[in-house]
# Entry
Amino acid sequence: MTSCFNDNEIQHLDRDALEALQLIRFKKIVKQALKTEFYKQRLGSVGIKDQSDITHINDITKIPFTTKEDLRDTYPYGLLAVDKEEVVRMHASSGTTGKPTVIFQTQTDLDRWTNLTVRSLLVTGCTKKDVFQNMMTYGLFTGGIGLHYGAERLGMFVIPASSGNTKRQFMLMKDFQTTVVHATPSYLLHLFSEMESMGYSRKDFVIKKAMIGAEPHSEEIRQKIEDFLQIDAYNSYGLSEMNGPSVAFECEYKKGMHLWEDSYIMEVVDKEKLTPVPEGTTGELVLTNLIRESTPIIRYRTRDLTKIIPGECPCGRTHRRIERILGRTDDMLIINGVNVFPSQIEEVIMKMPSIGNNYRIVVRKKGTLDELIVDTEVNSDIISDDTRKLYALRDHIRDELKASITISPQIEFHEPGHLPVQQGKAIRVIDER
Ligand code: DLL
# Structure
């Protein structure tokens, strides 16, 4: 287990030492993976039957990729590589079919992940003197609990505020003199746009830093947050399949995110050919978790597009940095930090008998938050009917969608044939953000 005490040394290992450490850990992960039927077949198909078949870190490139679909197909326990009684927690992320992709953690797994979150907070300059207000959602989502444990282990004063309830966030921030906040960038912007109307001003707060992540955001958004609040905002990247936050984190220089290479093997591949691209070239990030014994995942296609930043960081840490996430190769939308697949929406609305054949999903900014609009055609009989029926249908769709995607969208009805139709593939999603 990486202890906080010697962590600084690990952050500065030279490449040879880092790769030697990766190899030792990778072999252990292969050994774990071979305990699952799924990886026994996958690894067996390329002649890997035992960890001794791995002799160099580059052997990883022989192994087929693991995808979200694989995780879904093996739901719920297909990737569990330890006895169930060793599991102390699970996390999940949303999926297209309603079945989440699940990840299990043993106590050892949690300790290792927590150490990474401690490291991530330390590299941004956090100390045990800080008061940490965690505005990420607590629950199956990894954003809340994930950083919570690291902040506690670091010795920070943690306020587990979770997301929402703007008024209470301000009250806590003022009364307990919060110095560090953790939130999605969109929520943070939304929160502070309400500051004056809620009777507060910047001088009521002593906030110094924000950890922002879980959703794509531009440098301009970071600047907006920093300028408005006169704070430093650090980009934080992660995904539940790789534990959650603290896969990659910005250090005090804020020049890209150090991907913690002692704990993850990163590859960046061409998004179509799936072959490696050189440093500095954008491609899909592929990750292997080296520290989780319970749910080994090898060569996971994240669908996130980024590039490895060539050269060294002025901080001297040797773990390579990735550029902020530029987009995704699939169609998953992230709406105020919540992952939504268009197919989840389609699944719900197309079940309703009065709904027509055409629909589209519009996402736009309303102030600093994202707004989801579902534009759908309805059958002519319901249009000429009592308007109360239309209102009831609208409410029903909204409730069903809320149950499925946890967001309550605006529903707009159109007469049949009134929504645009494409010649080729339908364009269902209009993302105006
Ligand atoms: O969002 C974990 C996390 C929580 C990261 C809190 C940072 C802070 P998931 O819900 O599984 O996990 O969603 C993972 O979110 O594949 C990216 O597409 C996107 N994402 C996460 N962090 C960033 C970021 C968490 N900093 C998916 N920039 C990932 C852009 C991000 N996109």
User: Anything to note?
Assistant: The chain is about 30% helix and 25% strand. The chain has two domains: 8-329, 338-431. The pocket of DLL is lined by residues 93, 136, 141-143, 213-216, 235-240, 244-245, 302, 304, 325, 328, 339 (CB under 6 Å).
